Every structure is written in structure tokens, then in C-alpha cells.
Amino acid sequence: MQIKSKTLIAGAIFTLIALTTMQGYLIFNTYDLRKNSFAVESRMTIGSIVQNPYVDSISWAYRTEFVDKIPEYRKGQINKEALIQTLKNAANESNKGFLDYFKEGAEHFGLHENVLFKRSASLILFTYENGEKETILAENEDPDLFLLGTDFPVDEGYLINAWNWSFDKGFTNASGNLETVVITYRASLYMKIIDWDSIMLKKLLLLLFVAFLLFVFIITLVSYSIRNLLKIKRISEIKTDFINNITHELKTPLATLSIATKTLTNKYAKDDKTISDEAIATINRQNKRLQNLIDQVVDNSLGYNHINLHLEPVLLSEFIDEVCDDFSLTLPQRIQLLRVIEPSDTPILIDKFFISTAIINVLNNAVKFEGTVLKVELKTIKAYSVITISDNGIGISKKNKKLIFDKFYRLSEKNKHDYKGLGLGLYYCSQIIKAHHGIIDVESKEKQGSTFFLKIPTNHGKENLTG
Ligand code: ADP
């Protein structure tokens, strides 16, 4: 059972991890796919906006202005920077109109507001008649030349499209000869998506929410199943323990009974009255012991709502003194019982029989678990009369502290056989105190001792007392 449940728990945890990893992987894949499809959609939408005669005419206009300046450049009237500036200025002038047009187009085609677009020139090359080439704008070396849209660094965006233009410009040069320049011009379209992650998160919000709910659901299910499994395992262990204990407890009286009956049936014993009297006395004692054992199981298993209290007004200090007096009589000399009892001024309603049973159970445990100095205290703390019973015995580990009031719970496996018991004593005490609307609690340190607190409300049954 132990290996089996451990394997089951490990299997469940492994499956949970595997499922979570798979779910994470699927979400990540979906995120990636959505991101790509968003990029493709945006790219197509931009295409629909800018592939249009109006935009072509704008580009044509600034390119023409630039080309018309080439003769001045060739004649040395302007330098390269001024030539490039012409293109920049011309494009810049058209850009305002373009931006308005783009905005309208974006609204019309439903382009996301976080998508930016720009058109730029990345290469301008002149080829002269003699085959000589002059680079005006070097691709990948010079920064690209922004023309239309919203400017952003190229490496932050995506290239949508790029194409080369090639056209001739003929003019009369400084020497009065006709000269032709071939212009190679490369234009590129880029887009940039601002805050891509938050757009994607918004789009995937429902999916993430459902995934999160499923995750919480699975975690709850698995932890609930594991808890149940452990509970069942513990109950089964407790049952086996109880059966072992009770069998162990029954063996001795039964063996003694069998010897005593054998003695009685023996011929010599029949003739000897002392022997037969002794055997009968033994049978009676063992019979009583068996009866006690059965009573203990039946009575101590009662839940608090099955305990019938016969309440009577009691001055707790006097009552506890009496219980301690009686208990002291049963104690061997090596065990000390100390008392610090605060005198009670008002009686409270308790069932004397049950409360004394609870106190004696705790005191018996103190002796059983190797206490040599026991202390009983009575104090009124806030609304409770607190009976504190402490010992300097073996103590209780932190882990076990939570379990000792459970039905059939006994101390850990290794020293189970050193201390006899059925694991019902503290359960019964807790039920008795609960029936009095009180609280039972324990503080303990291993190898140092334990302190039990039986707290009974001072107003318990007060309405009955005055009424
Ligand atoms: P039992 O004494 O028959 O085992 P109880 O219900 O009285 O059953 O106690 C349950 C467990 O609580 C014990 O098995 C023991 O581990 C622990 N326990 C109870 N009282 C003490 C004590 N005074 N010192 C140490 N351990 C204790």
C-alpha cells in the first residue's frame, strides 16, 4: 500500500507537470502563431493602403525633384549632401499629406494603431556614360534615407517590401555636351509594431484566462485526490494498528483465563479449595479486565454529540483537588504530582464524571509517557477556566501534535510497542471538552515534556444555573 500510494502520488505529480508543460508549450505556440498572423495581416493591410496611384504620384514627385537637381550636382554647383537634402526636403513636404492619407486608409482597412509604417531609400547609385559608378547612398553602410510615414530605426522594424528603380537623366554638362546618368534607386517599406506583447496579451486574454482556470482546476483536483489518498491510507493504517493493539490487549487476559480454567478442571485443584478459589478469583479479575477493555472501546469511541452530560454546579478548584487526591493514591512513590490551584469563587456547570475521566486520561498518559514530575494547574483566563496538566515525559513531535486528538491515533511506529494503548484516550478527552463547549490544546517539546490545556468556558451552562 505504501509503495503503491507513493507511486500514485509521484505519477499524479508527474502528469500534472507534464500537462502544465504541454499547456505552456501550446500557449506559447499559439502566441507565436497569432503574432505571425498579426504581422502578416498588418503587412497586407499596409500593402492595401500604400499600393495606390496617389502614393505613387507622391513618390514620383519627390524623385523627379531629386533627379532634376542632378545636372547642378554634375556641374559642381551643389555637393552630394545638398543633392541628398533635396530628396529629403521634397519627401518631407509630401509627407504631411501622406500621413493624413495613411491615417484615413488605416482606419478604413482596420490597421492596428500600434503599427507604424515608413518608406525609405536605401541605395542611390549613379552610373555615368564612361561606365564609372558613384554611390550617393550606400546600402548597409549609410543610414537609410527616410522618405514617408513615421521614422524609426530600421532594426526595430520589419522589411515589408523593397524594389529597385532605374531611370536615365539626360542633360547638357558644363562643357556643353549631352550627358546621360543612369540612376539606380532602391526603395524599402518597413513596418514597426509598438508594444507587440501587450497587443498579443489582449488578443489571448480569454485563452490565457481559460488556461489559468483549467490549471487551477487540475491543481485542485490533483491535490484533493492526493489528500484523499493519504487520508484513506492513514485510515487503513490506523485500522490495522487498532486491530493489532486490541488483539495484543486481548491476548494476555485470554491466556490467563485459559490457564485458570485448566487449573479448575484439574483433578488436584478440585480437591484443593485454596487453588480453586484462587483460579476463580483470577477468572473474575480477567473477566473484569476484558469487560473494561470492551467498555473502553465502546465508551471512548463516542463522539461529543453522543455524550450525555449530567451537569451540576461545581467549584472547579475543590473538584480538581479531589481528583488529584484520588489520582495521587494510585501513583508510585517515584512520581511527583504538583498542584497550583487558584480558588474558584463561582461554580460552573460541568459533568463531574466526564471531566474527571478527561483529567485522569491526560494524567495517565503523562505517567505512561515517562513523566516523573506532573503538575496540575487551575487558572481563569479571560472567559475560560483553564486546567493545565504538564509532565516532563518523552514529549510529542511537531508533526504528531496535530494528530494526537484523532480517533485511534497512536505514537510513531518505532516505540509503539513500548507504550500500550488503543489511541482513544485523547480523542475521548477532546470529545468530552467539546461537549462542554471547551477547547483542548497541547504544547510540547520532544524529550522535554508536554503540557495539555483543558479550557472550559466559565459561563458554560450559566443560563441553566440562573434559570
Ligand atoms: P494511547 O495513549 O492509547 O496511545 P491517546 O489518545 O491517549 O492514545 O494518545 C495518543 C498519542 O498521543 C499517544 O500514542 C502518544 O503518542 C501521544 N501522547 C499523549 N499524551 C502524551 C504525553 N503526555 N507525552 C507524550 N506523548 C503523549
Summed up:
54% of the residues lie in helices and 21% in strands. It has 467 residues and is of the alpha+beta class. The strands form 3 sheets. Strands 1, 2, 3, 4 and 5 form a 5-stranded antiparallel beta sheet that branches. It has a 5-stranded mixed beta sheet with strand order 7-9-10-12-11. Strands 6-8 form a two-stranded antiparallel ribbon.
Can you give a write-up of this model?
Its EC number is 2.7.13.3. It comes from Winogradskyella arenosi. The protein is of the alpha+beta class and 467 residues long. Helices cover 54% and strands 21% of the residues. It has helices at 2-50, 53-68, 70-74, 80-109, 196-203, 205-265, 267-271, 273-300, 316-330, 352-368, 398-401, 425-435, 462-466, and strands at 115-127, 133-137, 145-149, 158-172, 178-193, 312-314, 336-341, 348-350, 373-381, 384-391, 439-445, 449-457. The strands form three sheets. Strands 1, 2, 3, 4 and 5 form a five-stranded antiparallel β-sheet that branches. The longest helix has 61 residues, at 205-265. The two termini are 57 Å apart. Adenosine-5'-diphosphate is lined by residues 365-366, 369, 391, 393-396, 404, 409-411, 421-427, 450.
